[in-house]
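Q: What would this chain look like folded?
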Amino acid sequence: MSIKRASRATKTQPHWLNEREHSAWRALLTMHAQLEARLASEMKRDANLSGADYAVLVGLSEAEGQRIRPSELGLELGWEKSRLSKQISRMEDRGLVDREICPTDARGSFVVLTDLGRDTIEAAAPEHAEQVRTWFVTPLTDEQLDQLTSISRAIIDHLDAGS
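A: My prediction, written as structure tokens:
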């Protein structure tokens, strides 16, 4: 049964999801939550990294020169400034990343991958790829993977067009 909330001070009836739409939406949310939890648990067990640690390390390892402006990294990760700042501080304390002052903008900075951070992501990435294959790729046929990619791109394009 879907949750029905009062319409926001409008006189029109809410356009509720039908059973098919609701079922697809709930299945997506459940799949995402369970997949994220499983991958995070295994990342913690295998590499002693949180999902957030791994996301930052991936972003840095893929950035040119393995350095990036915090605002760019936050945009890439979809995180707010305060969340990113706290995460970077925790990772800096562990020696995984550094902050460097931008030479052309005294108020700006870069987040930089350290040697330890690079070693950590290089050690964690193969096992993470294997876990993604196990829990995400293996249950799907090639056709289903192609459909999922197409569906995801359609939604991403729609979201991008609406911003």
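The chain has one domain: 26-161.
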